[in-house]
Fold Sensory histidine kinase/phosphatase NtrB.
Amino acid sequence: MPSNSTIDYQLLVDNLVTAILLVDHNLNIYYLNSACEALFDLSSLRAKGQPVLNILHRSNDHFKTHEALLNTLNKGQSYTRREAILSVNFKDVHVDYSVSQLQSSIQQAPLLLIELTPIDRMLKIAKEESLSQQHQVTRQLIRGVAHEIKNPLGGIRGATQLLARSLADPQYNEFTDVIISEVDRLRNLADTMLGSRQLPSYSEVNLHEPLERVRALIVNQTKNRIKITRDYDLSLPEINADRDQLIQVMLNISVNAVQAMTENKAFYQDHSPSLCLRTRIQRLVTINGVLHKSTIRIDIEDNGPGIPEELLEAIFYPLVSGRANGTGLGLSIAQNIMHQHSGMIACQSIPGKTTFSLYLPWESNHAAK
Ligand SMILES: Nc1ncnc2c1ncn2[C@@H]1O[C@H](COP(=O)(O)OP(=O)(O)OP(=O)(O)O)[C@@H](O)[C@H]1O
Ligand SMILES: [Mg+2]
């Protein structure tokens, strides 16, 4: 057991997964650890000295937060609130939190110690892990089916060509042409279902470069009809990744966003379509059961009609599509590429705001793969 003098308490508190807030006797924020900064997307500098009620209390909340905090501060009675919804930076955060009194040796008056556990994240981790396993099984199945479809196609195509040549009456060539073009369409579909057979080729990538590439492609494709905003954190580190595969991921998601915004005529009439590309560092993200201290987050956000609720749970499955002529492979391929990079894609959608967030761990080392 190390002696007290060998423990760096600051380091310890800043590495806790639990978010911690210290509040002074005026109910102003005195300190928040790194997990708390990440939870609220709020820097210590901005938060210090702010009334904690700005975070803990919402105007429509029936719970008497102010009285409860004063009670703990003055009488030392701890309490816990479950499934509270806090509003920070215009973002709702679902948490369980416990408040207790802390007698500090430095401060004369007692402080309040608030420990917060995000429940969203726990639910999300459980859901994502089981989804990821299901996806792997489904992908194997899809690859098997695609393989079986592809096998006889070469034979059908060859035989049809022979047939076409031996037809005495050229008017029947119209029918053999239909067979050949449908066989080709099926072969392209089976190829997409099988996915890329190329092994990823990793190199140091500045993620803004593929993102800018995708932006240029979208500008070109939509002939400037869509407003594209960029909100980049230019201090992002480079990461070891397959640049071309990341372009495919970003493109599949951006194309979906463009389609959602422009194909829905009723929606398009009243809104001007807009796409936002955002990059951030996001601390403490669990991907496939591994907690990463630092990740890069890329948001691709559109103001389209949103993903229908009944589809939202299933969009990453292959062959799930909400579009009349969609194959439903874009997102499944994108998620697969992200898994190969030890990353993931998450999605949140309400009408008017759909965000696909790509998470890539940047302390991870692909040499280990
Ligand atoms: N930004 C978005 N807004 C609304 N719906 C979306 C958005 N992104 C995806 N979707 C829905 O998710 C479905 C699945 O997308 P996915 O890219 O996997 O397949 P697809 O676009 O239908 O076909 P493909 O990409 O293979 O041509 C889409 O059909 C659409 O219904
Ligand atoms: Mg698509």
